[in-house]
Amino acid sequence: MVRTVTADEFRQLVKKEAHIIITEALVPDKIIFNPPATVVYWKDGTKTVSKVAEGETFVEEVGFAACVLRKLYGCRGAYLEMIAKAYRQPKRTEEKIPFDVNEEIPF
Asked: pLDDT band for position 78 (50/70/90)?
């Protein structure tokens, strides 16, 4: 039996399936911390390596996060490009009220 779905139902199905595919692709099989490198072997049989730049401090969480980003985007340049294009909230400028420490404050 063939079932007809609306465009919204189809979008929801695709979104759910894409989430499952992405989530399964990011399941590590083994994580190895070997300063200055982090090596992640993924369930799909691939391997990702992240190394700390010279002079930087090795942090396990950062190494694993770098491996996840590399797995998702292929290379560091791809996600740095996305970060560069991101919207930045303009800084608020607050009007400063002049305040004299010797002035009495009425209550």
From this structure: confident
Beta bridge partners of 30: 41
Mean pLDDT in residue range 89-97: 76
Burial 63-92 (b: 16+ CB within 10 A, else e): bbebbbbbbeeeeeeeeeeeeeeeeeeeee
Whole-structure pTM value: 0.62
Encode the chain in three state secondary structure.
Answer: CCCCCCHHHHHHHHHHHHHHHHHHHCCEEEEEEECCEEEEEECCCCEEEEECCCCCCCCHHHHHHHHHHHHHHCCHHHHHHHHHCCCCCCCCCCCCCCCCCCCCCCC
Q: How confident is the model at residue 21 (pLDDT cuts 50, 70, 90)?
A: low
- What angle (nearest 5°) sits at the alpha carbon of residue 7, between those of residues 6 and 12? 100
Q: In the structure encoding, which two tokens stand for residue 12, read together?
A: 């929801």
